[in-house]
Amino acid sequence: MEGQLKRGLLDICVLAAIKSKDSYGYKMIKDMKPYIELSESTLYTILKRLENAGMLTVRITEHDGRLRKYYHITEAGLRRIEDFKAEWKEVISIYQYVMKEDCHE
Amino acid sequence: MEGQLKRGLLDICVLAAIKSKDSYGYKMIKDMKPYIELSESTLYTILKRLENAGMLTVRITEHDGRLRKYYHITEAGLRRIEDFKAEWKEVISIYQYVMKEDCHE
DNA sequence: AAATATACCTCGTGATATGATGTATATCAT
DNA sequence: ATGATATACATCATATCACGAGGTATATTT
Fold first, then answer.
1. CB of A41 under 7 A from strand C?
2. pTM
3. Is the C or the N end of chain A the one with fewer CB within 10 Å?
4. Bridge partners, A67 (sequence order)
5. CA(A2)–C1'(D9) in Å?
């Protein structure tokens, strides 16, 4: 997809991916793949940003001799998802404006 | 609204605003205000970008002794709107992913 | 005369996504 | 055994972009 539109949804997708169950980067990419594709560099950038913003916490573990970092959503992260739902209504309103203009043809 | 989400919609809104009828910057801002607010600096940046991308053409006029630049959508611009409609389906798919995860609570 | 509306523009800044690249271990196929 | 692929993390440079601040100029309203 064209990228621009996706941008605003990235943070929310990542938060959604860990909302009901802690997860780690590599797994998140695979889980989200059917819905939204993002590279590792993009995801780790986002995870770092969300961590700095207090939206999630990190727990380092070891699995089969490999490093694995589990991410856990915080209260602030949950609130961010709630805020998104409100913003989504505005997005729909904008979409309707575009469609309205589109139908004047 | 949060900004990030709006980003991907800005170009499309501007194209939609001139789709059925040529318009000019100052008017577009007022027309779009109920749906999406954008500053003059933002709009003129976008108009310049869309012009460079061949999505619209410009016609300079004079009105009451004041400069006025009318923008006209091109074939490429119309195609951009069509592409957006396809992308929108992906956006909805992503939204549903977020909501799905949200309901596991 | 002053304030507001109309109408355009540029520059600097901060935020951001992404490709390229790197590190390291485990597993699988030949 | 060895080479490829999968797992799993990270950083850096770059390009794009929205936006506030500030600027220019004329017409209309108070």
1. yes
2. 0.92
3. C
4. A62
5. 28
Rounded to 10 degrees, the C-alpha dihedral B90/B93/B98/B101 comes to -140
CA-based nearest residue to A45, from A1, A3, A11, A6: A11
Closest CA to the C1' of D16: that residue is: A4
Q: What is the pLDDT of residues B34-53, one digit of tens each?
A: 999 999 999 999 999 999 99
- What is the pLDDT averaged over residues B61-83? 96
Q: Where are the domains of chain B?
A: 3-103
pLDDT band of B101, cuts 50, 70, 90:
confident
CA distance A65 to chain B (A): 30
As a rounded value in angstroms, the CA-to-C1' distance for B66 and D28 is: 13
| CATH code, residues B3-103 | 1.10.10.10
CB proximity B6–strand C (7 Å threshold) = no
Pairing of strands A56-63, B56-63: unpaired
Of A87, A95, A104, nearest to B88 by CB-CB distance is A95
Residue B100 binned pLDDT confidence (cut-offs 50, 70, 90):
confident
* Confidence band of B20 (pLDDT split at 50, 70, 90): very high
